[in-house]
Fold these 3 entries.
Entry 1:
Amino acid sequence: MLRLPKIRLVSPRSLVAAARLLVEAGPEGAALAGGTDLVPKLKRRQLRPRTLVDLSRVEGFSGVERRGGRVVIGAGTPIEELLESPVLARLGALREAAACVATPQIRTSATVGGNLALDTRCSFYDQSGSWREAQGFCLKTDQEAPCRAAVGSERCFAVASGDLAPALIALGAQVRLVGPVGEREAALAEIYQDTGRRSLRLKPGELIAAVELDLDPRLSTYRKLRRRGSFDFAALGVAVSLQMKGGEVSACRIVLGALASSPIIADEAATIMTGGKPTLERVAEAARAAVRRARPVDNADFPAAYRRRMAGIFVARALRDLTGLRGKP
Amino acid sequence: MARRFKYIGRSPRKIDALAKATGRAKYTDDLSLPGMLHGRLLRSPHAHAEILAVDIARAGKLAGVRAVITGDDLPVRYGIIPVSQDESALAIGRVRYVGEPVAAVAADDEETAQEALGLIDVSYRPLPACLGIEEAAKEPPGPDSRLHKAISYEFGERPSQASALERTDLFFYEGNTHLALEEHAALAVWKGGKLTLRCSSQTPFHLRQIVAKVFAMPQESVRVIVPSLGGGFGGKLDPFSHDICAAELARRTRRPVKFALTREEVFYCHRGRHPSLMRIRSAWAQDGRILDLDFEACLDGGAYGSFGTVCTYYHGALQPTTYRLPHYSFRAARFSTNKPPCGPKRGHGIPQPRCALEVHIDKAAEQLGVNPVDLRLKNLATPDSITVNMLRLGSSGLRECVETVAKASDFRRRHGRLPHGRGLGFALGSYLSGAGVPIYWNEGPHSRIRIEATADGALTLYSGATDIGQGSDTVVVTVAAEVLGIAPERIRLVAADTELTPLDLGSYSSRVTYMAGNAAKQAAENLKAQMYRLAPRRPFEAALRAALKKTKSIEAWGSYTPPKKFGAFKGSGVGVSPAYSFSACVASVSCDCETGLVRVEKIHFAHDIGRALNRACVLGQIEGGIHMGLGEALSEEQVFHPSGLHRKPSLLDYKVPGLFEMPELDIHLVESGDPGGPFGAKEVGQGPLIPVVPAVANAIYDAVGVRIDATPFTPEKVLEALDAKARGGSGRIGPSRFPEVPFPEPIRVRDA
């Protein structure tokens, strides 16, 4: 194995200091949280930063805390802790998404913030430096180079394959962001944009500090398509949340992960489900509407057409399970 | 059991278990020597190209770089088998696959060596690349022909009886790789004209021979030592560029040089399963007897020969060890393509044809209206018989294996009758307990073992066999301990060091337990005889003390030479073995018809082991074989982009099954007691993988009525087949054409 190259490591005590260090380091810097995605990339020389800003010493960065009817999750919280927290016990989508991130060993190191800020992935990008050189570099890192996954494409189709983002968006999460000169809040969905090169809409140096969400009695679930029951990144993620009132769906959110460079909010599908009693016909219609939003390309495991088709199956199954419907329309 | 054993048949802890579990065991990459340099290889970015020039000047000037070498510095061609001396340590004039080593650097540290690779300027002229069997078979005979080896045989006589059923099937078996946990590594030191090479090799004695050839020096001046080795599965049998470059760079710099490959580089070393396109034709009598079997195969060999010739022969060798075939013909061709070389992976060339055959028989059983288990039993080869291709079958517990899994799974009652989406599949398999004919022909023993008792009372066993994780160190020590009647811990072991230990051909062809085990048994018996001659009628320790007072030391040798082969035609040496193992497998699967996802719920497995020497090790090998078989069946594939680049050269992207994919296992050992094996033992390292893949294929058909005639059986393929079936098609996914191949005139062997 190739060991890590020599890299400067700085360990600030606050997020503001971390943000400033990242601005100082510029494109040669990278933030290090759990390291489970970054370190393998460093080892295979996919990335070559000179400075790592280590977030493990930042105070108050980790933990799950209940505040009234809301819960605040520090971005530095290891993902495995989400599974142990009684506060989150009823947030089905979040727990299910957390439970299928990588492996238990990786989850004890990998953090919530790291998963939300996960770099987009592509089978032509997530390779060693020498592999990419042999293939020819691509749009993900070189403006002048062609896209290798969708030949002729003007844009990069690298995939947002984190599991937590679709689940948290379906649950209506907000994030607190800390930058070099202050902090702000935003809906989680708003920090993503559907561009593979850079899918996070964050200002230079800006870091996710915490995630906040309501502990309302919503039903929710998360489904993940992957080759194996462990390890693998999502080839498709489906998060659904539902609010039922008097046997009718009063609110619904459907979010598709790993089909584009950001989570896809399938609002048309959600609208079909909202208002009125859930029926198998409406579920089927919503699933079809969700599939229409999915335009994956062949740059992850499974053929794109298969992933797209499974989006419909997974949405329908998630809706049927949450509403207790049985059978096929 | 005829007699009670003290250690044999039980599950004492492996002698290296504690060191490995606690991290004390030292693998090659853990070793470091004073002044040691680090080596890295520059690899080709082209699948096929002419090398116009290699300029190492810039790299050589980088601070910390101690030497840079290219193909011209190591001109001697070599290869693991005598007929395929087609490799060089670094490419000379031409590169033939992406990842082929072109230059090597030794530097003060790994990072500097890595940086230096970027300063080596190579100019290439790209050439058309050939990446598959169909393409390769299109090249007409001549200088551009891709045909590496073609063979053709015909055995026995076709009975005059009319056939009730004739059918033809095509099957494609995708390539896949070994994925041993330890990445390859080598550490070379020269001292006074003598080379010491510590490396992750399954064949230290072959490597010694090849290194001596490359450096034109006597074999005794090369010492190969294998430290702890983290898995081989056939992937560490060949001599590799890093072994030879480590030696050359150490020679030039007069300092130790270590190479430790990355996982990606291991994918380029490969030597794994050949992709194979196969066609089977069979004829059956009304009563279910096979009248005729015709088998053809095209193997995708990758860029170099490796063990490919042997693999090509193996494609046709073992079909007759399980079924009585009155007439059997087989043709196989291996093609060169621009991909990492294929070679021997667990099961060598046997899993592909066995899979195609077992699926073919399943289809025939349905047409004949016979239960697949009963159809096989009707045609089972007879123990202690001579097969149509002149193999001497010895002990066989195959019938018991078949009946055991059929009963355990209630196969006869449940097959074909489970609810839609659930199914059972049956298959069997067979393997050699060591090749009867060595790859480097010699008249000498295949394994030798020496046990020495010294004046201080120490007992040391010297074994040339290489423990690749399978437990061969434990086996040789346990066998000797059983004979001597002492605890295994009493025996000190020196193993896998070409200077200190007697010759052993290596850890391949499932030969070590049978051959080194027999040698250990004989050495221990010999020691005992010598000791009791000097000091009769005493317990062991007292006898040893008394004997050593008289003679200071006792040296005892044991060796094993397999019986001579039976056939006398060209190629008759392939498939010959002193004993064959047999396995039978029932896979129970569920299939999700909306997603195509296949889940293997349970595996019933029976293996004729002859006798289990260490029960836990035997079960471990069977579990490991099933795991590897499931990977080949469901998810693993060594596949390439049109550019020739490997699509998934990482542990994340190459989909080896994990814990969640492992089904419930129901394993039965059949102990038929082989008369020639040590305490009756036969092989278990490779055989158990073989029937798993076709059992899963047949189970998928039983579950949802589609035939996936191409591995791996992925959800996307199953769904495609289900779609086709729903549209009124056959529901079969698989190859539809077999290329025109200029096979030679068959060698006819009539006289069985």
Note: The two ends of chain B are 35 Å apart (CA to CA).
Entry 2:
Amino acid sequence: MAIAWSDNAPIYRQLKERVVGMMLDGLLKPGDALPSVRQIAAEYQLNPITVSRAYQELADEDLVEKRRGLGMYMTDGAREKLLASERERFLKDEWPAMVERINRLGLDIDKLLRASSAGGAQ
Amino acid sequence: MSSVISARGLTKRYGKQVAVDNISFEIPAGRIIGLIGPNGSGKTTTLKAALGLIPFEGELKVLGLDPRTHRDELMEQVCFIADVAVLPRWIRVREVVDFVAGVHPKFDRTKAERYLANTKLKPSMKVKEMSKGMIVQLHLALVMAIDAKLLVLDEPTLGLDILYRKQFYQNLLEDYFDENKTIIVTTHQVEEIEHILSDLMFIREGRITLSASMDEISERFVEVMVPAENVAAAKALNPIDERQVFGKSVMLFDGVPRAQVAALGETRNVGIADLFVAKMKGTYA
Amino acid sequence: MNTMKWLLRREFWEHKGGFFWTPLVVSAIMTVVLAVSLAAAVTMGYQKGVHINGADVGSLSEAMNPEQQAQFVTGLTHGYMGTGAPLFMVLGFVVFFFCLSSLFDERKDRSVLFWKSLPVSDAETVLSKVAIALVVAPVISVAFATITGVLSLLFICIAAAAAGLNIFGSVLTSGAVYLAPFQIAAIIPVYILWALPTVGWLMMVSAWAKTKPFLWAVGAPLLIGVLLLWFKALFGLELETDWYWRDIVARGLLSVAPGSWFGFFHPDPNMSSGPDNINAMALVSQSWRVLGSANIWIGAVVGSAMIFAAMRLRRWRDEG
């Protein structure tokens, strides 16, 4: 599988983000095994060292755990941890910026919320 | 960790011409190194010297052995694919497997047969009946079944169609490579192996112009897309290369802190191909 | 790791045509020709003067007295391996062209880079090629010659029976019949030593020439010889150049022909009984006598030196 890796960040970090994305989307569930370093390296044509690095960082952040002889598995608390950190990032950086933008555009925040929940119910 | 290959003052002369000019380098184990250079740059000569195929001056040790005096011993631990089409045309699949099994102490026959089972190759097929891609599959089947510490690949995918090329590296990564092995690849198709490499060595006119790990390269080199108004300021920082893309100046900096250039425009990592072209400018001029 | 065994097998696989099929086909043809001519002789009545194997087939008839019979059988059992003569002529050609291509073809198609990627030394490789040319190929030829010879014996006995003569018994009880193949095989060691200069020269050229090895191997010595003659004529020198043509050119190019030593050391005419009568015993003893000459040993040393040179060339030559 050929992925167009971006030039802006190291590959290992992009790989890590992919895995994180899969966890958040529920494609990877707690207790699921991650594909082996070899498999990822072979499929995405990457150096195994790169893949190991991504996995190592995921392990450092307790998102995956190494089970001896078996491989890397998503930890039980991973999703919650990710949601928590994503939420924090949203609340600290993205939401305030969004609010500022809404105000700059002269939009009414309450009107938007009512419209979106109505739209969401559809 | 001892080096797999260690060279000091390696020189090779052909008459008056110097093909490899006093180069020194160390290649540690467990890496995948790309040896990139234009034709005639000395990359094939360097490999030949390491494989004991030609005499040389200076010091060169492969797996601790001098390839000039200990070649036979060395060949038990080193394997190479010199080119796509070097398997003898008269030989059959089963004959070459039997032969390698008979002469190579580190050949695992079942591994080779397992690999071959996934191809269209039949035991009675002769090499002259095979397409280039199939010949590479056969050669790879043999190589992967040999537990060698060093694998040297000199343009292993030259002239192959993309399916065979992708399969080639996929198989190497999936079933062969591990932290005890080292692979040296030379190729013109740099983009293809860009992310597989852990280290890079550029060679030009017999000299090494760059030798670094991919991590170091991503830290050292940065490409910046500089809008017209910042070009003068950017130039003051001494870019090693500049090219025009869609009217914008793309400059390549070596060793300039990212923070400094970030102010001038959008930064990104440089692709090996662009880095190569930047470093090789002047060779083709 | 029984590397030499696999190297020999490799050579055999590659050159099955020359080492196996060629002698097979030659044997088959000879056997058929013999059978047909015997059948013709039998059906059309015996004509005197048809010689096969030194035995005058025409003389086969009920009229043969026991003495003539015994003489006939003796000639037959001592010389029946002579039916294999064409095989040995062919062997000379096969060995010649094999040696010439042995270290050249692999460089031309670059397969030498595959062979060199394996832990097999250049010395072993070159040695295996010498071995297959000088030992394996002659042994195979002797084997086929034996088969052809035995078949020819059989056919002649049948032809004799058709003429009312039963010589099966005397043929089968003669010792010579069983000795002959081994005697012919016993010539092989002499062949090996005698052929070394040519094998060495051809393999050395094979390892050295960039292109057209035949031209170099044959042309160079001939050219030098011609230059010598021209030199001699030009300066009116009293140089004796026969030695060059004999000991350099002939020894260097023709020694792979089985029996070529007889060109140098003429066989004692007393030992054979007639021009068609190839006596196996005589061949062996005459051949082994050559071992007493300096020529064969000097040639062997020179040949070995050239084989060594070929090994060095293969080790260090820069290919592609």
Note: The mean pLDDT of chain B is 90.
Entry 3:
Amino acid sequence: MTVPSATVVPDERASARRGRRAGGQPAGGSRTAGYFFVAFYVVLLLALGIAPTVYAFALALSTPGGLGFAHFINTFNFFDFAPAFEHILEFEGIWLVSQTILVVILALMVHTLVRRVSSAFRFVFYLPGAMAGAASVVVWLFMFDPHTSPWAFVLHGFHYRLLANTVAPGNLPVIFAIMAFFTGAGGWIVIMYGALNNIPRELIEAAEIDGSNAFQTALRIKLPLIRKWIVYMLVLSFAAGSQLFVEPQILGVATVGEISPQWSPNQLAYYLAFQLDRFNDAAAISVDLLVIGLLVAVLLVWRGRLFEVD
Amino acid sequence: MLARRYVFRLIAMVVLLAFAAFFVVPMIWLLLAPTKTDYQVIHASPFAFGSLSQFGSTFHKVITYQGDLMLTWLKNSAIYAFGGTALALLAAIPAGYGLALTQFIGRRALLGITLVVMIMPATALVLPLFLEASAVHLIGTVWSVILPFAFFPFGVYLAYIYFSSTIPKDLLAAARIDGASEWGVFRHVALPLARPIVALIAFFAFVADWNNYYLPFVMTYDNSQYPVTVGLQVLISSSQVFTPTATGSASVEIFRPDLAMATLIAILPVLIIFMFAQRTLVTGMLAGATKE
């Protein structure tokens, strides 16, 4: 899983500055110039964003008798459909809860340090983001193998003697959660740290003068003020987590038959399309995943008011 | 009170160091594994250093695996990532400028759609994109990977925020009064001021493209086209470590140090970029969010 592309959060000060400088309204330039500047992007948006979405819906809904939900019903009845979504839900549950708690705690702790030390920790936390995806899975294959792992003493504590013991099917949601945390948490810690820095210093000083200790200040002042970034992280991570593919795919190759090649919905869609030649059914699963992503996106953009749109 | 504060700080430091170990240990292991033989990787301490000569011979073995397969994968990754990033910048910078500093019908709608597609995970679109690329006979060409990479709405949003919050309107108006065309205003006034955001968008686009696995996995169909991310999977499936029946390339066996070396080579370009971008990443990633 990659560091979420939306790791740069909208800046509240930016809107204030824009309000001062630009009067809150874009201006200048002729209408024609506006069309000219966005033209190439609009072509890409239509061809690579809108068209495939429409195509997926069309394929998923087209049946020999016209439009219908036959392909959705087909996939729903497919024996790997429910387990694939259950796996994802289980993984998301473990990952989102642990990531939220740990990222918030670590960001709060990092925020109490002097700048130089805090900067070093943030860099160390962020660095694994460089190996998101396939590289991270390969490294974690060795971390989960009791023969090679620096954490072998922990694995032995669970009576794991072989890689196959560690990556047993029941452990996979936890394993994928650890991998996702490894590559993604650092980015979020940096974001939370940035959000914490946006809290006016006077507010924290006032709380301290009133006798609030570091723990109370974190719990009662800082946490409520970064709540919307926590929601932002949760929602975005949920959408990204529903798309799991590379982790079970490579782990499946490495363990040869131990992990179902249809472990996640994306893998199932891939299997239906390229192994069974059932592209319409695969499109139906893509639509399921698209709808999850769309709902999350619309929720964030219009209800969450997290993004600047003037 | 003071004692309690010190206890809190001590606990915080212990927790932070424990998590730093969690993040760093796998990377240290990755650096050290190629210095050892396969036997040493299993039997020596995970943090033991083997030898530089072993590191060199492992590097040579990986880089010459099946002729120049690793170099082919790296070249493909570079073509996909640089091509995708270049096109993403060509689209995103003018679009962000247009959305932020010009007025046209549909501007707000375009901005709204951009935000929605930016948040939607791109992976969900991979199969429909495959079908679309297949319909226009692009499968197996570099364009089947580069073009989807070029569509980078997050970059448009970043450019929009930057232009709308950083470029003073008066400056643009003055350039227009001086007779500059709309293109001239963008090219000679706005663009030179946009270097930081161009770098930031390039960074995010390149890292995302280089690390992408699923899209090229679907769009390409043989070793000569795979990027290094998919190549890593090929190496795993060829390795006797995980697949005892694997034959690899008949004569060359892939062991643990080789896989570690291949992974190290695969992440090296992004790792170097991370190192150089360190200051921006940990402090400037959030505009206005530095602890000054």
Note: Residues 286-292 of chain B have pLDDT under 50 and may be disordered.
